[in-house]
Amino acid sequence: MSREAVRQARRVVVKVGSSLLTRDGALRRTAFGNIANQVAEGMAAGREIVLVSSGAIAVGSHTLGWSHPGRSIPEKQAAAAVGQVGLVEIYRRRFARHKREVAQILLTRAGLQDRERFLNARHTLQTLIELGVVPIVNENDTVSTEEIRFGDNDNLSATVVNLVGAELLVILTDVEGIYATPPQRGRRKPPLLPVIEEITPEIAAAVGGAGTAFGRGGMSTKLAAAAAAVRGGAATIVCDGRRRDTLSRVLRGETVGTFFPTRERMASRKHWLAFTTRSRGELCLDAGAVRALMDGGRSLLPAGIREVRGEFGMGEVVCCVDADGQEIARGLSAYSSEAIARIAGLSTGKIGEVLGYSNGDAVIHRDDLVVTREPPKS
């Protein structure tokens, strides 16, 4: 999708960062109004828009009279519990001016790792969209911990792209986009990259960390979100949302921020495997198996497995790594870790003889496997 084609994108996910909604812990109420005005304008023009909004912890901290986002996980969760109510109420009032209803959707990684819950969330969002309601999605910080949280709403927004089948992801932040080199305080801004066709190691090295106390995601998470979104078939734009008309300009196809063109859409189930699920273990593969997965689109057979790491059951998600420990694929295992350890390195004909049963020749069938590393360019 080109920038010109952005104007034709019907279903859009818009991610709003905490840095746009707060300043030094204080709420920027006009920012909520600006976002609502632009989203409502887009919807009036026939767009279907899902809003992924940070800010619950910031709003809750402000309500509790804190100048910090909470000094412990329980404090952050308490602030989120208070703030989620306030955040949606502010949006409700702003969208009411446009005669639009809003709905709150709270998600966690643990919830979406379950395929049935993932599909339930999809059906709910689809119904809200059909009703003309504005879904406001946020991570459920009241129950999230370091183990189950998305860690930032940038990555959550890429998952929402897959949930709703969006054609465009717009990440509104407090910088112009992705710069060619790391910006340094007190120096002239480096050149902005208007288009990123491929995320190279040099581009990855040019991004920094989180910029505010109330925001968890830095530019590196926006880069990761863009990578996931384009694999899901959605072009992505990272841009400065502090300007009151930025989103409207993006939707008109104007040159704003950094643009990541879309790629061939990955099947939703494989996108879920690649970017939403959490691995329960690792299978270390020999060079032949690595080539078979990356170049041939094959299933993973026991003969190519050299080592099993971790404990997991049948049907759980596992990573496939090469000899250097680099992930090359992941998928749903047809056997438990204990069973795979017994058949690793053996031919498929030995499975039933060794285990006394067989769930098929493949440890991971190609239909349940997704390659997560780009094949080397010739």
Protein described:
The chain is α/β, with parallel strands linked by helices and 378 residues long. It has a 7-stranded mixed sheet, with helices on both faces. It has a 5-stranded mixed sheet with strand order 11-10-12-13-14, with helices on both faces. The chain has a two-stranded antiparallel ribbon with strand order 2-3. 38% of the residues lie in helices and 17% in strands. Residues 209-215 have low confidence and may be disordered. The protein folds into 2 domains: 3-268, Acetylglutamate kinase-like (Carbamate kinase), CATH 3.40.1160; 279-371, Archaeosine Trna-guanine Transglycosylase, Chain: A, domain 4, CATH 2.30.130.10. The relative contact order is 0.12. Helix 8 (153-164) runs parallel beside helix 10 (219-231) and helix 8 runs antiparallel to helix 12 (268-275).
The CATH H-level superfamily of the largest domain is: Acetylglutamate kinase-like
Which stretches are low in confidence, meaning pLDDT under 50 for 5 or more residues running? 209-215
Strand content bin: 15-25%
Major sheet description: 7 strands, mixed
Mean pLDDT: 89
Shape descriptor reads globular
How far is the first residue's CA from the last residue's CA? 25 Å
CATH topology of the largest domain: Carbamate kinase
Structural class: alpha/beta
The topology string of helices and strands comes to HEHEEHEHHEHHEHEHHEHEHEHEEEHHE
